[in-house]
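Please decode residue identities from the backbone states below.
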């Protein structure tokens, strides 16, 4: 899951439900279970695709906004 963090990761505050890119009528709280870091969790992640773009001509075709909207659509269809 994509995490949008405003606060330090060690605070464990997931800001995805508050991100202005997501529809306000989605009820993320109903499906939220906050747990601590699990074995194998990576504390900070990011991607720099510039080398891949240079070597293979890769150009992202989906914006963050589109990706989040599609994620929400998928989540609603497949979550229980």
């Amino acid at each position: 899951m994509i995490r949008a963090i405003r606060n330090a990761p060690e605070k464990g505050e997931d800001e995805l439900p508050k991100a202005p890119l997501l529809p306000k009528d989605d009820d993320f709280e109903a499906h939220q279970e906050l747990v601590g870091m699990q074995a194998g969790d990576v504390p900070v992640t990011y991607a720099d695709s510039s080398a891949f773009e240079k070597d293979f001509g890769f150009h992202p075709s989906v914006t963050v906004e589109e990706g989040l909207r599609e994620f929400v659509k998928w989540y609603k269809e497949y979550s229980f």
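Observation: Residues 1-8 have pLDDT under 50 and may be disordered.
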